[in-house]
Amino acid sequence: MSTESADSSGSRPRIEVTEGAAEEALNLLEREGFDTGIAGLRLFVQQGGCAGLSYGMRFDEAPEEDDSIYIHHDLRVFVDPASLKYIEGSVLDYEHGLQGEGFHVENPNVVSECGCGESFRT
């Protein structure tokens, strides 16, 4: 298990989280009754969608043994090794807009997305 913090060495973290996304996720974690000192947001990639891959998110009570853990603005983000190769360098943000609001992954590895933006290909 490896842990990286937003404040660690001068190198860029492998996954970043904006302050707005961290705040929203922490609020949701607390409302669901999770201990925000241990629990976190799991970010993963799964097969699916018209472009081949899609993002998934859920809350987990604790990380798995082989997870990488990223801590930004007090939010713990868990990423499994298989997903990390697809989302390394990504930024998790929370967007408010006319089409609704929700979490959005800005992924530099994406070469194409489906028309609805729900799936991608690297």
TrEMBL record:
One of its GO terms (molecular function) is iron ion binding. It comes from the Archaea. Transmembrane segments: none annotated. InterPro entries: ATAP (IPR016092), ATAP_core_dom (IPR000361), FeS_cluster_insertion_CS (IPR017870), HesB-like_dom_sf (IPR035903). One of its GO terms (biological process) is iron-sulfur cluster assembly. PROSITE patterns: HESB. Gene3D superfamilies: HesB-like domain (2.60.300.12). Residues 15-118 form the Core domain. PANTHER family: IRON-SULFUR CLUSTER ASSEMBLY 2 HOMOLOG, MITOCHONDRIAL. This is Iron-sulfur cluster assembly accessory protein. The lineage of its organism: Archaea, Methanobacteriati, Methanobacteriota, Stenosarchaea group, Halobacteria.
